[in-house]
C-alpha cells in the first residue's frame, strides 16, 4: 500500500462565482510549510496527500455576494467530502473555504 494517495477536486453548480483557486497545505499546523497550488482544468484538479498526515485543501472564490459553488473531494471516483454550497459571505465579493484531510 502506497503512502501517497491521489485525490481530485471537482467544482460544479457555480452560481455567481467568477473565479476560484485551490491550494493544498500538507501541514496545516506549521506556517512555514509551503502550500501547493491545485490547478483545476475544466473544473477538475488533481493533487497528492500522504496517508496518515493531516492536511488542508483551501480555496478562494471571487464573485457576487452570496455566490455559491459545489466542491467535491474525490478518491477513486467517489466523493469523500462534499460542500454542497461553498458561499461568498453576504456583502462580500470574496470568500474562502476549506476541507481538513487525513487519510
Topology, please?
Blueprint: E1 4-25, E2 35-38, E3 44-50, E4 55-75, E5 78-87, E6 94-101
Antiparallel strand pairs: 1-2, 1-3, 1-4, 4-5, 4-6
Report the radius of gyration as a whole number of Å. 14 Å
Integer tally of domains: 1
CATH class: Mainly Beta
Number of helices: 0
Query: Average pLDDT across residues?
Result: 93
Give me the CATH fold name. Answer: Lipoxygenase-1
Under the CATH scheme, the architecture is: Sandwich
**Strand runs, count:** 6
Low-confidence stretches: none
Q: How would you spell out the order of helices and strands?
A: EEEEEE
Work out the oligomeric state of the chains in this entry. Answer: single chain
Characterize the overall form.
globular
Written overview of the protein:
The chain has 103 residues and is an all-beta fold. It has no helices and six strands. Strands 1, 2, 3, 4, 5 and 6 form a six-stranded antiparallel β-sheet that branches.
